[in-house]
Every structure is written in structure tokens, then in C-alpha cells.
Amino acid sequence: MSTFRVAEVRAANGPFEITEREVPEPGPGHVRIRVEACGICHSDAFFVGAGLPGVTFPLVAGHEIAGRIDAVGEGVHDGWKPGDRVGVGWFGGSCHHCRPCRQGDFVVCENLKVPGWSYDGGFAEAVVVPEDALARIPDGLTFTEAAPLGCAGVTVYNGLRRSPARPGDLVAVLGLGGLGHLGVQYAVAMGFETVVVARGGAKAELAERLGAHHYIDSTARDPAEALRSLGGARAVLATAANAQAISAVVDGLLARGELIVVGADMSPLEIAPTQLLISGRVVRGHPSGTSQDVEDAMGFSALYGIRPMTEIVPLDAVGDAYRRMLSGDARFRMVLTMS
Length: 339
Known about the structure:
The protein is of the alpha/beta class and 339 residues long. The chain has eleven helices and 15 strands. Strands 3, 4, 5, 6, 7, 14 and 15 form a seven-stranded mixed beta sheet that branches. A six-stranded parallel beta sheet has the order 10-9-8-11-12-13, sandwiched between helices.
């Protein structure tokens, strides 16, 4: 192909416009991916709305990318070949020079490269990415299944596997949406006694279908009290982007229990120091994960039959799909396809 289509935004919160561009050649250490699918993440709104520093326009969003390597630049490791099935998530490469990188903690790189922010993202038929952003997609996953795992999937998977919880422990997932429905599946597969905490009773049936052992309607009773009645949670994975709801579950943690915050809200948490001090509780913000973490999450998903619940739409319908994601009506991840 000599040209390819992209869905670009030309000004903050502007409409998506389908345009054609010349196909770029990958530079040293980079590969070009022919995109097959790309998830629409709520974090894309930070870029489309110029809510983060350094956003420039025209902008091509999308950091849940799945496709095939189309071309390989000079110096790329010979383990990557044209035709390889790969994913790229929030982690779109690191600088390898800052202090976190030199300590091996690449996901908190001070110069982290995020597709759609640092370079053009996956709302396009092709994208050029650094080779350290690549995660190999296992044969058991389709492109539309793999794409959301590059951000939503790896975030909750990593949050749980790095928690203090062990098989048999009580673990709560706060929120049952785009992140939460994956978090529940991972928690069950990891052997945790899994509790879903959500507003209202409408999602109780879904929670049970996903394997949850308990459901707490936070509008019917105090969620912290309900967790204590079950024995207390070793960990709570807070996927709901609501600071008030997150704050309300802290007292449901066991001594030395951990609140893992992955739901993004700009409002402050309302937690008193004594809620943490007396019982030795921990509050931890958890970023996404490196390309190896993404590969681990996809491998675990393929092994245990964990899949995102998706609505699949063509690139031409990106505007409608993006608005559906923002409205909260998506069930549960919107995914664009390029075919």
C-alpha cells in the first residue's frame, strides 16, 4: 500500500476525520504494523481533549493496537519478522536512559512513549512503533480480543498479580465496566474468592456469570461493612473512576490489606491517615504494564479463556464509537477494525 487511512482529530475535542497519508517507512529500531484492530480507551479522551501536556494536533489516538508487522527497520532484533502478530498498549516504548529505566522499571519511564500522545496511534490502518513496545499475540486470541488487553487487560492483570493477595484470599473488584469485567475474570482465574462491588443490582447476574462468588450493591449497604461481614478483603482492585466510591471501601480491607487504584479520577480520595496507620493498610496507584506484561496478560487470557466483552465497529464509525465509549453505554470495550 502506498497510502493508508487514519482517523485524525485536528483540534481539541474536534470531530474525527478520515484522511489518507503516505505510508511511512520504519526508522532504526522501529517496525511498521498493519493494524487489524484498535480498542477505544477512556484514556484517549485525555489526548483528544488536550487534557495532558505535550498533545499536538492533528492527532491520531489509539493505544490498544493489534495487527501484523508489515516492515522492519534497521537494527531491529531478528526475533521480529514481517507477518508476526503483535500488540501495542499504553506502554509504547521507553527512553532507556532515565533513572526508572536504568533501574529496570520501564513502565514509569520519565519519558514514556504512549501511542496517540508521543506518536500517531492505532486509529489507523498502519502505525510505526519502537520495537520495545511490541508484545507477541498468542494464537488463541483474535485481533479484536487482543487489542483491549494492551491497556485495560494488562492494567487489571498486573494490579492483581502484584498485590499481596494469594489464592483463597478475599479480593474485591470495585466497578463492573470496561476494566472491572476483566478484573473479575482474572481474579477468579487466579484463585481468589472474588467479590464485585457495584452500584445497584442490575449487574449482579453479569458478576455471577463472570465467576464472582459474591456481589455487593453499594447503594443498598455500606460496601466496607459488607466486605467486613465476608471476613475483610486482602485487596480491593478499584476500577471505578469515582474517588468517592473508592474511598468508601478502604475500611473493608484487612490489616495490611491493599487498595489498588486503576480507575482514573481527577478528584481527591477522602481517606483519613488513621484509616491506614492503625491497620497498616496500603493505597497503591498502579500504572499499566510493559510490553512483556502485556504479553503475559495475553498468554494468561488465552490459557484461562478470559476475553474482553467488545462492540466491534469499522474505522469509518470511529466518531460514533468514541461517543458511545464516553457515554458509558459501551458493553464493555469499543474496538475498531480496519478491514
